[in-house]
Amino acid sequence: MNRLVVDGRDVAALRVADSGLARLRGLLGTAAEAGPPFARALLLTPGNSVHGWGMRYDLDVAQLDAEFVVVRAVRLRRGGLVGPRRGVRHVLEAPHGAFETWGLVAGSHVSVR
Length: 113
What we know:
This protein is mainly beta. It has helices at 20-25, 98-102, and strands at 2-6, 9-17, 40-44, 50-51, 59-64, 70-76, 81-82, 90-95, 110-112.
């Protein structure tokens, strides 16, 4: 299992969705949290937009540039949409509240370990 690192801090288990089917499925069908609070995240790569249609809970969504720097971090409500943005190459998803706990904000650097 991969690990998500935010500004040099290991914060969560990370699943990488790097196929069309994996990106399409995303976090659909998952429970809001399993294990310790905010212990997991999903990286959609490549990707630049996501939707919350069919989701059971709200998400934190970060749009990342090619160097994995957070361009924008927002709350995605169930049924909502985070549209494409220029320069975005990857999208990070986690249960809502995770980004605040992890200290992830616009300008943060994300890496996969």
